[in-house]
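stage 2 :: seqdesign
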């Protein structure tokens, strides 16, 4: 559980610090766009009121509160799952990324009414119109990690140990 908490805290703080630095301190809210490494990396201010890529963003306050509730339900479920099943290190790390990223975006929705997205990457003649943030990266990496590692090292070892005990020992 310590891995989840530490990872969630690190992801949350990194996300919130990056938003403070870029959106407020560097003034991206007012400027709107800062080219860092054209065309590959730019800061482009986008307020996401929906889910990924702004989907379902037209519902106003109802959508905002539903997304906050959904994120908090997922955070609670993942945290309880880790506490009860005690998965391996990689699954706990992945869970921490997901929890920290989700909480980072919840804070944005509470503070601004929308998620502050600002990272924009384009390449190879493709102009990407979408922006994202550190929390989005953490949620994506955490969900992918849980899909890959949730049934892995911790729970598989416990299951093998239980089966071995039922059969009566060595073969």
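stage 2 :: out
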């Amino acid at each position: 559980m310590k891995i989840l908490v530490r990872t969630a805290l690190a992801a949350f703080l990194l996300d919130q610090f990056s938003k403070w630095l870029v959106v407020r301190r560097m003034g991206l809210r007012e400027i709107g766009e800062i080219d860092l490494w054209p065309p590959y990396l730019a800061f482009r201010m986008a307020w996401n009121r929906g889910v990924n890529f702004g989907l379902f963003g037209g519902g106003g306050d109802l959508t905002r509160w539903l997304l906050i509730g959904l994120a908090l339900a997922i955070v609670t479920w993942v945290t309880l799952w880790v506490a009860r099943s005690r998965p391996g290190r990689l699954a706990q790390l992945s869970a921490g990324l997901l929890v920290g990223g989700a909480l980072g975006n919840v804070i944005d929705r509470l503070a601004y009414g929308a998620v502050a997205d600002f990272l924009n990457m384009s390449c190879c003649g493709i102009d990407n119109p979408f922006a994202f943030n550190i929390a989005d990266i953490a949620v994506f990496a955490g969900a992918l990690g849980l899909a890959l590692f949730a049934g892995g090292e911790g729970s598989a070892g416990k299951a093998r140990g239980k089966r071995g005990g039922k059969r009566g020992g060595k073969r």
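stage 3 :: structure notes
- The longest strand covers residues 41-48.
- The beta strands are 33-37, 41-48, 115-121.
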